Amino acid sequence: MRSPALAIAWEIWHRNRLGVVASLSVIGVAGLVNWLVGGNSRWTGLAEITGYVLLVLALFFTFGCFHFTEGRRKGGFGSFPFRLFNMPVATSRLVAFPMLYGSVAVLTVYLAGAWVIFIPLGKTQPLLWPCLYLVCGFTQFQMIIWSFPESRYLKLLCLSLAAAVIAMGWMFFLPHIIEGTLGELGYTGSPALFKRYLLIGLALTGPAAFGISLYRVHRQRHGVTLLPFSSFGEWISRSFLPHPKSFRSATRALFWHEWRQAGYVLPIGVGAILAMTCVPTYLSGPLTARATLGVLSWIFLSPLLLAAIIGRGFAKPDFWNQELNMTPFNAIRPLTSGQWVTAKLKVAAGSVLLTWGLLLYASFIWVTFAGDFAELDRMFRQLRFDYSPQEQWLLPVLAFSAVLILTWRFMVSGLAMGLSGRKRWYQFSNLLTAVVWVTLVAGIIWWSDHSDRNLHLDDVWQWITWLPLALGGAVIAKSILAAWVWYQVDQRQMLSRHSIYAYFGCWTLATGLLAGSVIVAFPHATWLRHLLILLALLVVPLAGPGIAMLALARNRSGS
Amino acid sequence: MNLPSTSSADAVIAITGLTRRFGSKRALDEVSLFVPRGGVFGLVGENAAGKTTLIKHILGLLKAESGTVRVFGKNPVSDPVGVLSRVGYLAEHRDLPGWMRVDQLLCYTRAFYPGWDPQYAEQLREQFGLDPAARVKTLSQGQQARAGLLIALAFRPELLLLDEPSSGLDPVVRRDILEAIIRTVADEGRTVLFSSHLLDEVERVSDQLAMIHRGRLVLCGRLDEIKESHRRLVLRFDSPQTALPPMKQALSVRGSGCEWTVLCNGERNGLCASVQQWGARIVEEQVPSLDEIFMAHAGRKAGEVESSPALS
Question: Choosing a second label site near A72 at 20 to 30 A (CA), which of A318, A451, A522, B160?
Fold first, then answer.
């Protein structure tokens, strides 16, 4: 290596070359497919939406590859690689090179996607604002993770806020959004001028992120890692977090440990989204009835979305550690793997309850002060018209139980992979989950844009006659797998029989609540009701916790 | 191949034929080791010799690819609770949770061990000078080592495993506290197994010793017997020699001309007979230090396993 710039470039490349090649390959394959179907108008819509999904995934993956952080302390979260501080290189260069390389990589992926995927379909993508927007997003991302090496919750909060802004902000560059939404919010100026201001703002965010990162990394290089308001965080921790003097049992101690590690992550994430959504909409003045419903839908959807993302980290033995192996500190405690997994399941349940409690309280306050009840009132009247008096009360209760169960399910769905200690399996399952989610969201958007509004629910049945058979087979397979797994858990004495029966009881109750909500919600469409009952049997994990226990036992013994 | 013959029935740790590979590298190769109840057992070897891998097998943090590991007669992988509730462990790389405060660390760890002695824990905390309100991440490396040692000791485990306990500790703490604790634990009839590459430390504290070199056990026995069984001989020949004839007991040979120094292992009479056959005479005879014995064994070809005469 002839220069530090080349050495850092080599390090980043060497560490992430597989990821970069995979991202570009995905774009290449998508481009090839689009080139082949480009002339066929029947497939163009599907190819376009698939292209967007793959491009988003490739960009997401590139962000993950180029963050340029390392875990300095075990159990910590990534920070700027401290080992580089020993090198005879100016801090400005240490900060600039990774930021520059990451920005170039993100731009390369976007431009490759825009040309290779969409040009064969005859679609021209905008270049200026998306490029500026991506560079802005990437530099903010690096700035946040480099700036708070010791404050993991603060880092998570800032990342949540930034992710929410980045996920929503791009819409303000779309002409119809500028003209429509800004008008509703009281903006009376020229849309073109607004866009120009946005572009100038975006262009300034990169240098600003570099400046802040340089300041923070420079201070870290000279031993100042704590923030000025760290003592405030310490005060919050001392005053509001539980500090038990002693634990009545090892399992309670374990629950406390897991709770302090990851129990607050989902409530804080949802809290950030609530703050980002409720405060601006309250300040912007009274909302229309439709806007109130839209905001409420977004708020109520956020725990599910966040649980699916946070659940990937929650699945690891240590939420804040990039490694999947159990640390010796935890592994040598005289507890079975079953007790570890049980603690995680309980922490997930507690976290979900706290999150939804917070959300219900905040949304009630928000609707009272900032919302318009007209649309909600119409929905309630519809509910009274469609259902009997008992069902009117039963349905919201069951539906609320169902969202609690679903949120919990998303939190614990990756446990078997995360606790296995096998990085490839874990990464593959994360990728698969991301593909499913992005496809689902993109599919819903595409469906809402292209579907026939007059399509009757019963018309769907003709396309999915095979589905009950597939779901039935999956239920049988799940039952057989669960029987085998729990037999193994019992034989290896990972969990007491009492606890195993207790979990079966919980599973039956949760599945019953899901099935009950389906039965009450769809009293007339028999085929749909039966289909959803089958789905309910699949939703709550039955074999999953047992597999997680076996996987953790293998991880613990280095197998 | 001579292996230590301590009965596995008396042993707190009984390892037979343990082999472990990481990729193409053999980290442990047919290791058999029996650690008797009571006393201090030192495990020495250079870096990457396989000491930590061996300790991880004892804790059940690694599963034996071949061979068996029994601790208190139990398999630590299939019965982690039965084994780990009786074992205190200080890891080489301190991995204490940085977000906990010292008092929380003690409170948390206490919950797992019914035999936790709060008075002893408090006494150790004061002795180690640990502030209960301090966060673990703000402690120095030495203080973290002390905190780790505290939670490994406070429930008075039957078996104490210390993996490079000295790393991070200053000489005063190492000599005055660590060694005193190790001796106290052993004097109470409990067992201490500790690994180190600081041979003078092992020499001061250990009753028994095992030496690992490139994954193989090259020496095992009581420390005094190991030292007694080794001799450093200075030989003088009447005429200059270019090389010495092969001698079974010689571990290392250096010198030139008429004067040669040989570090050898075996009974004194046998050594004298060999020397006489060469036509040389012994002009000086000393008991070598453990450091010299270690260097001599490490310099030999891997695969030659020996034990002290008393154990073989």
Answer: B160
CB contact under 8 A, B112 and A73: no
CA–chain centroid gap for A503, Å, is 27
Query: Which residue on chain A is closest to B111 by alpha carbon?
Result: A250
Q: Taking Cα atoms as reference points, which of A205, A359, A370 lies closest to residue A273? A: A359
Distance from CA of A316 to the nearest CA of B (A): 16
Over the stretch A104-118, which tens digit does the pLDDT of each residue have? 999 999 999 888 888
b/e sequence B261-279, b meaning 16+ C-beta within 10 Å:
ebbbbbeeeebeebbeeee
Mean pLDDT of A357-383: 88
- Domain containing A229 equals 1-241
Q: Kindly state whether B44 is in contact with chain A, defined as any CB-CB distance less than 8 angstroms.
A: no
Phi–psi pair at B211, nearest 5 degrees: -115, 125
Quick check: A74 pLDDT over 80?
no
SS3 state at B74: strand
**Residue A257, min C-alpha distance to chain B (Å):** 8
Q: What is the pLDDT of residue A555?
A: 92
- Quick check: B272 pLDDT over 60? yes
Q: CB of B279 within 8 A of CB of B238?
A: yes
Give the end-to-end CA distance of chain A in Å, rounded to a whole number.
Answer: 38
Instruction: Reply yes or no on whether the pLDDT at B177 is more than 80.
Output: no
A505 to A409, A501, A542, B204: CA distances (angstroms): 16, 6, 11, 59
| CATH numbers and ranges of domains, chain B | 11-225 (3.40.50.300), 229-307 (3.30.70)
Tens digit of each residue's pLDDT (9 = 90 or more) over A93-107: 999 999 999 999 999
All residues of chain B having their beta carbon less than 8 Å from the beta carbon of residue A238 are: none
Structure tokens at A212: 């802040």
User: CB contacts < 8 Å between A and B, how many?
Assistant: 82
The token duo for A98 is 């990774």
Q: Which value, in Å, is the radius of gyration of the alpha carbons in chain A?
A: 25
| Residue A268: inside a domain | no
pLDDT average, residue stretch A51-58: 84
Place of tokens 């002693």: A246
Q: Provide the domain count of chain A.
A: 1
pLDDT tops 50 at residue A381: yes
In sequence order, the 6+-apart residues with CB closer than 8 A to the CB of A376 are: A289, A292, A293, A296, A367
Given A74, A243, A249, which is nearest B111 (Cβ)?
Answer: A249
In a domain, A103, yes or no: yes
Q: Which residues from B are below 8 Å from A492, CB to CB? A: 78
- CB-CB under 8 Å, A250 with B104: no
Q: Give me A382's structure tokens.
A: 């519809």
Contact between A157 and A268 (Cβ < 8 Å): yes
pLDDT tens by residue, B209-218: 999 988 999 8
Q: Are A122 and A45 in contact (CB under 8 A)?
A: no
Task: Find the residue in A nearest to B76 (Cα).
Answer: A557
Give residue B308's pLDDT band: very low, low, confident or very high (50, 70, 90). very low
SS3 of B193-258: the string is EEEECCHHHHHHHCCEEEEEECCEEEEEEEHHHHHHCEEEEEEEEEEEECCCCCCCCEEEEEEEEE
Residue A395 lies in a domain: no
Does residue A136 form part of some domain? yes
Q: Where are the alpha helices (DSSP H) in B51-91?
A: 51-59, 80-84
Percent pLDDT > 70 in chain B is: 92
Q: Please state the ipTM of this predicted complex.
A: 0.81
Say how far apart CA A72 and CA B134 lie, in whole Å. 19
**Residue from A459, A511, A460 nearest A482 by CA:** A511
B98 interface with A at CB cutoff 8 Å: yes
Say what the pLDDT of residue B3 is.
43
Q: pTM above 0.95?
A: no
